[in-house]
Amino acid sequence: MLKTKRVLFFDIDGTLLDERKRLPSSAKEALRRLQEAGHELVLASGRSPFMIARLAEELRIDSYVGFNGQYVVLRGERIYTNPFRTDDLRALSGFASRRGHPLVYLNEGQMRGSVNYHPYVDECIGSLRHEHPACDPRFYERTDIYQTMLFCREGEERPYEEAFPGLRFVRWHPRSVDVLPTGGSKANGIAQLIGRLDFDPEQAYAFGDNLNDVEMFRYVGHSVAMGNAPEAVKKLARYVTTAVDRDGIANGLRLVGLLN
User: Fold this and answer.
1) Is 11 a catalytic residue?
2) Domains along the sequence of the chain with CATH
3) Residue 4 pLDDT class (50, 70, 90 cuts)
4) Of the residues 11, 13, 213, 247, which is catalytic?
């Protein structure tokens, strides 16, 4: 293992966790060895902090880039947030309502939906091992919202992209798109954290598997795509490892020279 300290960012779903949301023992052991060597480990996910907490505790990681970069915590201290403007969410909510597309609004501690029930919401939130959120269509008026989920079929997000050029729409599921506030990306959140640690991006490593990892891959010096990632994501990565359930994390760390 290299002696020089590095900072490493790990996506969660499809990267650390497999399709059944299980953490491979080889990944857990690999991360433990990195920590013993003094490297800085960070979770970098589209998930909310309340969805990250259990895994972070298991891995003993107290730094994370949540909401695809909108909520950054370094060693237990919140150092950066980028919430939506309320007017943007009000306009987005009206636009989605007229098209029959539900939304889910998320802050750091909970989520609320724009409708009582929708099968797309149930399917997508269920895939994250969470229940269909309670309905509160004006939740965004009473709290900071860092990410919104739009539920629609592939291609149906295009009118939203045209109507809201300042927002970012990143598909993570065939039935759902993450909506990020102006200036939002994993890369931006990572830049905030790296700046605090006084690291150069070239010293940073990132492991990911989906489209919301693309900007992160472009920002860091060493990007590693999981073997289960789409081809478009693999083509943008510097390295490609095996699938998450085939020791992808451990093999990827060996590939980049951080694990023997």
Assistant:
1) yes
2) 7-81+184-255 (3.40.50.1000), 86-180 (3.30.1240.10)
3) confident
4) 11
